[in-house]
Specification:
single chain; mainly alpha; 2 helices; elongated
């Protein structure tokens, strides 16, 4: 809060807050420039043919957790059915 009774301290406080706001605005603006440039480069790479997605090789049992995993997993809590 600003003490409006003391003109000197109020002036210093307002000037300090203005400097901090300007500094934060400059940082945010620079971050926005960086993000926009990165997005522009990514778009150009994808649309220009420089991006080739990797082909996935699927194999039998590649994405299945087997029973042995659940037996050694510390978070495994067997559940019972309650009716």
């Amino acid at each position: 809060s600003i003490d409006l009774d003391g003109v000197e301290t109020a002036t210093k406080s307002v000037l300090h807050r203005a400097e901090e706001a300007q500094r934060a605005g400059i940082i945010a603006g620079e971050n926005l420039k960086i993000a926009q440039h990165r997005d522009t480069l990514r778009y150009a790479t994808i649309r220009g043919g420089g991006y080739l997605p990797a082909l996935r090789q699927f194999s039998m049992g590649g994405f299945v957790l087997r029973d042995e995993y659940w037996k050694v997993c510390s978070r495994y809590q067997p559940s019972a059915r309650f009716i």
